Amino acid sequence: MPHILIVDDDENACAALAEIVAMEGFSSATAGTLREARLQIGWRMPEAIVADLRLPDGNGMELFDEVGASGVEVILTTGYASVESAVEALRAGATDYLVKPINVARLQTVLRRLATTGELRAEIHSLRGELRRYGRFGRLMGSSEVMQVVYDQLARVAPTEATVLLIGESGTGKELAAQTVHELSSRRRQPFLAVNCGAISPTLIESEMFGHERGSFTGADRQHKGYFERADGGTLFLDEITEMPAELQVKLLRVLETGTFMRVGTNRECHADVRVLAATNRNPEDAVADGKLRADLFHRLNVFPVELPPLRARGDDVIQIANLMLDQLNAEQGTQRRFAPNVLDSLRLHAWPGNVRELRNFVQRAFIMSDDDLITEVQVPLQVAATQAPGAAVVSVPVGMSLADADRQLIFATLEQCAGVKKHAAEILGISLKTLYNRLEDYAARGELPEWLRASRNDTGSSATG
């Protein structure tokens, strides 16, 4: 029988929690202090700990040091809730953070999920082995080093209840990452709803999020369940979170803190057990500075930030993804089309300002336009670096600048656009890789290399960053 350790200096609270735990099929032990909790852990390592944040002899988060990397789930409770303490607890590794008086339904849901955690971790371990063979992780594709980092982050956070903030340019796959987190969580058999906060009318977004009662406004001829109610038990993905009206951001923060909300047109509180994942294609700190995102909401969402890299920084992933997309179309249509080598070379050199979404459109267009099994560059022209990628450097050459200075600026700007991949930069510049390395050595000797380039000076040119 799974065992739960309950740590709280309030004897009545301990007794109530022990009763709930027993109803869910767990055995339990109680402790009123950190010292007693450590003794209990020494006698029997629990599967999970439910601990008050404030204890007579310290902080409940100190128990993380006691269980180490044993896989014990820690659920923290407190009667003194704040955004800062919630974020600190979840970042430290807490499975959940419950505000007193504890919502019994929410605690029961958390306990029921504990039984599936071991199974989930085993499945994720298997997936991580699979991605190294086939370059896939959940719904994401690619085997570059930068994507391996993303996969590791998603694998760690998926089985938890932590809020995830996905950051990346448009088209980098933020919704696919959110779906992957959902499908690798204990909520995977429950709904996954994706909401584009920028695509809903500001006058209707509160009703869409939280629902409304019949007669609450003109045209409300029936009760309507919002996204939170419809996603109950599952995951809600809020895309373009910085486009949500400020007054609604306050209500979203309340839902994240308490799990409760009110439909438009009523004062009756509703409860929803929903895990929130959010995304933005803007720098969230800039959005806070510009007044587009409340600082308190940002800190509550930013428990576990994950940055999705742009396609131009992912090396040969572009070739792998393009071929996988083409294979899918071949399977659907019963064809055997393939890209000519010169097309693949062009794909490597393109800036991809629209990222994976732009690549998908290109592959579909190429498939449709091709008259035979070999897709050539003539059939589907792709201008290399035709559009400046977001964040790419702009070269300014004022009258009077020497050719040597202009040459140096152009080399640095091209390397920046190619995410430091020297082989690609040399191809765009029309020079040999050896010539590029010689130029960089000369610039380094004169102390003219920018700081970001000095860090990769010793790269070989064959890696994703060299």
Automatic annotation (TrEMBL):
It holds the Pfam family HTH_8. It comes from Cupriavidus necator (strain ATCC 17699 / DSM 428 / KCTC 22496 / NCIMB 10442 / H16 / Stanier 337). Residues 3-115 form the Response regulatory domain. The modification 4-aspartylphosphate is found at residue 52. InterPro entries: AAA+_ATPase (IPR003593), AAA_lid_NorR (IPR058031), CheY-like_superfamily (IPR011006), Homeodomain-like_sf (IPR009057), HTH_Fis (IPR002197), P-loop_NTPase (IPR027417), Sig_transdc_resp-reg_receiver (IPR001789), Sigma_54_int (IPR002078). PROSITE patterns: RESPONSE_REGULATORY, SIGMA54_INTERACT_2, SIGMA54_INTERACT_3, SIGMA54_INTERACT_4. This is Response regulator containing sigma54 activator and Fis-type DNA-binding domains. GO terms for molecular function: ATP binding; sequence-specific DNA binding.
